[in-house]
Amino acid sequence: MSTIKEIAARVGVSVATVSRALNNYPDVSAKTRSRILKVAEEMRYYPNASAQNLVTSKTFTVGVFFSPADGSGLRHPFVGHVLTIFSAEIGRQGYDILWFTNRKTPFDHYGIIERIQHRSVDGLLLIGQPEGAWEEILSADVPVVAIDFVISGHRVGSVTSDNRRAMQDLVLTLTEQGYRQFAYLHGPLAVPPAMERLQGFYAGMAACQMIVHPEWVAFADFTMADGYAATKAIIAGPNRPEVICCASDMTAIGALKAIREAGLLVPQDISVVGFDDVEAAVQVFPNLTTVRQPKEQMGRLAAEVLYSMMSAPSRDTPHHYVLPTELIVRQSTRSQSAENMSRVGPSDPMADSPQALKFDTI
């Protein structure tokens, strides 16, 4: 591995000049910095992390706390997609990722704050809400960005979908298509997106003056198993809904299975709509109509916001972004009437003949 002494000798400058150029000090000319960086790349120079930490007071490490409500971990397709984009974007800025586990063992005497300080991370990404850890995390005095929920405090940011608006607009759109009997499968209400989507469902039903049947509003923990069980119970009743709206695609896929096993057809007997637009939405039959979250934009923006706060530690301006969603119409809902087709946007390349409607942010 090359050293800065070898780079200095090859470029013909002092070791101090090389060090200052590599650490982005402003008193090195652009021409000299360019030469040094080019030679460093040619010689495959990689800075020693401990030495760099002493110079810059940075470890170039970002901590990630992930607390999924359903226990799926990184297997959940929405989370996996967002984190893949985040990792790539933050990696381009020279940062590595450290995963914090949700360990709780009898011999673990360290809380989250001690673990954050021990690892000396430069920033934190939160997906899900670490149980009982809010004040600890926010008191760590490092930049924090949350995905899919909003936090407030010093040097914090968040990136979310407009969950409430998305579900409200979904109900309005389905009502325009002639649906009147709605069921809804919601996630754990302690999780902000699940609560916001449920609120949007009720708001949409109220705006359309539709009757909410309490027996058709059921809990399903963002999983196929819960979606299957909840749907099986609903369709076993004396009356059936015309459409089942689900708070996640995995829940909706479970609903499709329950409907099929009951000898019913989708969408002829019951329509199904999901939320997220994971890859599996086009791998099931019929292809799933769903609300698409902007997963790539969420991961990219979370990385940009966190990097911005880590690069300017003196800035205390909060960064909160609410992103619009799209309704992707596929085969699990009935075709739209001609009068509604004029509202439809460009086709989704992942399905045979889907349509996309953009739900703008309020």
Brief digest:
The protein has 362 residues and is of the alpha/beta class. It is built from 13 helices and 13 strands.
Question: How is this structure best described in words?
Answer:
The chain has 362 residues and is of the alpha/beta class. The protein folds into 3 domains: 4-56, Orthogonal Bundle (434 Repressor (Amino-terminal Domain)), CATH 1.10.260; 61-161 and 296-323, 3-Layer(aba) Sandwich (Rossmann fold), CATH 3.40.50.2300; 163-294 and 325-359, Response regulator (Rossmann fold), CATH 3.40.50. It contains 13 helices and 13 strands. It has a 7-stranded mixed sheet, with helices on both faces. Strands 2-1-3-4-5-11 form a 6-stranded parallel sheet, with helices on one face.
Strand order of the largest sheet: 7-6-8-9-10-12-13
Number of strands: 13
Determine Rg (CA atoms, Å): 25 Å
Average pLDDT taken over every residue: 83
What is the string of SSEs from the N terminus onward? HHHHEHEHEHEEHEHEHEHEEHEEHE
Level-2 CATH architecture of the largest domain: 3-Layer(aba) Sandwich
Shape: elongated
**What is the distance, rounded to the nearest whole angstrom, between the alpha carbons of the first and last residues?**
53 Å
- Broad structural category: alpha/beta
Count of spatially separate domains: 3
The named CATH superfamily of the largest domain: Response regulator
